[in-house]
Amino acid sequence: MKKIFFYLLFLLLMSFGSYQLTINYIPKLVYEVFHYKIEKNQNIKDNEIKHFDIPSDQSRDVVMPNPDFLYSVSFYDLSKKDLNLKGNMPDSSYWSVSFYKPNTINWYVKNDQEFNTNKLDLKLSLNNNLKENTIKSPVEKGFMIVRILVEKKDKESLDYYKSLQKSIVIK
Amino acid sequence: MKKLIENKLILVPILIIISFFIGTFIAISSINSSTQNNEFSIKNGNWIVNPKMDLKDSYQRAYISRIGVFALDEKEALYFLSSKDNMGKNLSSDFDYEITGNPPAGRYWSYTLYGGDYYLVNNKTDVYNINKENFEKNHPITISSTKKNSNWLPSGNEKQFHITLRLYNPDKEVYNNLDSIELPLIKRIEK
Question: Contact A23/B31, CB-based, under 8 Å?
Fold first, then answer.
């Protein structure tokens, strides 16, 4: 009887442990699936940037995409070197840079009004660095999104925003 | 049975496997249930809005990763979602709707339609949203499967669709009072 009680307690504790592990792993799993999907479908590697067109009804990479945005994304890896994100951005419309941990938590976001310049020049590092344009990543690997709001969608405006988007590079 | 209980070498691995399946099953079921019931979202009328994104609790983090992966925090953007009209009925392309009232104060806003699968509603005109820029003042926003002259949001052929009201850089009063601010109404109208 004592043994049965012991085994039931063991089962209960192990189930609770497994529950906790699964709950903690779900965000990482979501991230890994997304990483695999983007890497496979868009043929991009870590530390490369991919510029996406404005989402349409054919877009299937993420649910609920915003059709007002041009998205540029990158999976970053700082294990070998620091990264420099550069680009020419719109003068007055909204744009932002955001970074995410592999558990999908957004650890950094800064928009055009906070940058106060249309010259994007940001250094991403694992080390503490006092330079003004350097940010310290809390994780070695993560995900980055640059969002550019496309206020008008006529061809001329769209070409303008796309040319800005193409100027965004990671070195 | 007695023999099995006596044999730890067999019983312990069996119990570990069973507990793995029990724990995983309960975890996935509870997250799915929370997702369907929007458990952690803030409710205001028929709208629900994302809770704070800076989540320390692992359960809420798992929930957010399911409903809004790579979303922004509440100071940067708010995402109001509605799947029902003002009478509490599911939104469907079988009916027409009018959005009345103003979006909450913020730098930029947009209304976007998503189908039952949460992808953009299929339509030939490539019109997916009404936003601060393309909105024609003094005209209501009309959601319909047939073309309208102004502020038309095509609902395609979606038996159930969802509307997202996005608000970028909302005013502080907005994200501090999400459950009580006045939000637009989605009214069913004659087709």
Answer: yes
Summarised one tens digit per residue, pLDDT across range A56-113 is 888 877 778 899 999 999 999 999 899 999 999 998 889 999 999 988 888 899 999 9
B88: closest CA of chain A, how far (Å):
22
Cα end-to-end span (Å), chain B:
68
* No. of helices (H) and no. of strands (E), chain A: 3, 9
**Residue B57 sits in the same domain as residue B72:** yes
Domain match, B43 and B18 both: no
What average pLDDT does range A141-166 have in this prediction? 93
Q: A15 and B23 in contact by Cβ < 8 A?
A: yes
Kindly list the structural domains of chain A, giving each domain's residue range(s) and its CATH number in brackets, ordered by start: 50-170 (2.60.40.1610)
Q: What is the pTM of this model?
A: 0.83
- CA–CA dist A113, A92 (Å, integer): 9
For residue B55, give its domain range: 38-189
Cα angle for residues B75, B79, B85 (degrees, 5° grid):
145
